[in-house]
């Protein structure tokens, strides 16, 4: 909260941009760069999307969403780090197990998983979005095994295997005393009640969404990119704010109105534990396979000699390391080096002196 409150204010310091023609001055304050700030990380987000697109394999992709049942949300609130780690593990193991099944693909898939924890009205709703390759590297590493264009795995098989893996992980953690049963889930401290919950969830059909993205993998990465470096809410969704209420857009033209305290409470539900990684890669895309299995899969998929993905990766890396002003100009069309007043001068950076105005030298005249 402290980081968001002082973001782009004089508290964090900054500099003064001065036009070399007309002398127009514009203070520029530093960003907090907190990963939960709605105003920060836009450039990092754009670069992430470009890097992921550059590393994609030349195949079709599927979008798979794993959602635990609502009965586990209170337990997840109290045991956030543990439960979300279980969610990543259960979802990735489900996909890799089905992909490696010789009766299905008999191959190692590539998976990028991104954690979401919110609904449009900021309620706590943890779920995992996965981008999955439409096929994989055969288990012997000698060929690429493609999946069908419109079909990955049966949804019921996905949901039931995911259900079994997550509930088994919960049972093990409970037996080892790793689950904290406090606050909204105090009743689960009773082993009988925990067993009843587990049995009830075993009988329930869980929700897994699996679909081939109609507009290609670029559409899904851009969708995920809106949330990889931000949390819960963007500033443009705020419609009205006063001392008594906050109104923000939800979906289908609707909006929600909350008291300031409730609004802040819901926003903070989505602040992740320090150091928690919300974007993870598995299978072919796992870091340990980046220079082994992934390269082998790329060679099998390459139609001609040069590895286009590697060339694109090098170009993207160079693009992401350019000056941030040039990257912002490419993304938004806004040139921060050009004077907004006279539109011809160049903005020159100078120290920003707090407090009383200090004497400044007159602007340099252009030749």
Describe what you observe in this structure.
Among the domains are: 204 residues, no CATH class; 34 residues, no CATH class. Helix content is 36%, strand content 20%. It contains eleven helices and 14 strands. The strands form four sheets. The chain has a five-stranded antiparallel beta sheet, with helices on both faces. A three-stranded antiparallel beta sheet has the order 2-1-14, with no helix packed on it. A hairpin with a 5-residue loop joins strand 11 and strand 12. Helix 2 runs antiparallel to helix 7 and helix 2 packs antiparallel against helix 10. The longest helix is centred in the N-terminal third of the chain and has 21 residues. The radius of gyration is 25 Å and the shape is globular. It starts with a helix and ends in a 16-residue tail after the last strand.
């Amino acid at each position: 909260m402290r980081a968001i409150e002082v973001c782009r204010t004089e508290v964090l310091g900054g500099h003064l941009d001065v036009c070399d023609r007309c002398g127009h001055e514009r203070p520029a304050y530093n960003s907090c760069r907190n990963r939960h700030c709605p105003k920060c990380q836009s450039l990092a987000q754009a670069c992430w999307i470009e890097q992921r697109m550059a590393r994609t394999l030349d195949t079709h992709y599927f979008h798979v969403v794993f959602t635990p049942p609502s009965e586990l949300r209170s337990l997840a609130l109290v045991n956030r780090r543990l439960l979300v780690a279980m969610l990543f593990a259960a979802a990735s193991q489900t996909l890799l197990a089905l992909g490696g099944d010789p009766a299905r693909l008999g191959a190692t898939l590539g998976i990028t998983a991104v954690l979401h924890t919110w609904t449009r009205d900021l309620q706590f709703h943890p779920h995992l979005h996965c981008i999955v390759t439409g096929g994989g590297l055969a288990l012997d590493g000698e060929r690429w095994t493609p999946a069908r264009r419109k079909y990955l795995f049966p949804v019921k098989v996905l949901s039931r295997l995911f259900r079994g893996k997550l509930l088994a992980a919960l049972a093990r953690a409970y037996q080892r005393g790793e689950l904290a049963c406090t606050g909204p889930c105090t009743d689960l401290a009773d082993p009988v009640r925990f067993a009843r919950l587990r049995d009830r969830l075993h009988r329930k059909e869980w929700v897994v969404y699996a679909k081939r993205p109609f507009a290609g993998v670029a559409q899904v990465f851009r969708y995920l990119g809106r949330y990889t470096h931000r949390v819960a809410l963007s500033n443009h969704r705020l419609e009205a704010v006063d001392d008594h209420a906050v109104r923000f857009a939800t979906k289908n033209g609707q909006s929600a109105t909350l008291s300031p305290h409730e609004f802040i409470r819901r926003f903070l539900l989505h602040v992740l534990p320090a150091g928690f990684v919300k974007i993870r890669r598995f299978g072919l895309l796992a870091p340990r396979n980046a220079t082994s299995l992934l390269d082998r899969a790329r060679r099998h998929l390459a139609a001609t000699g040069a590895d286009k993905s590697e060339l694109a990766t090098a170009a993207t890396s160079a693009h992401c390391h350019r000056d941030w002003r040039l990257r912002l100009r490419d993304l938004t069309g806004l040139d921060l080096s050009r004077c907004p007043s006279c539109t011809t001068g160049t903005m020159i950076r100078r120290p920003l002196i707090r407090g009383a105005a200090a004497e400044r030298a007159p602007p340099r005249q252009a030749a």
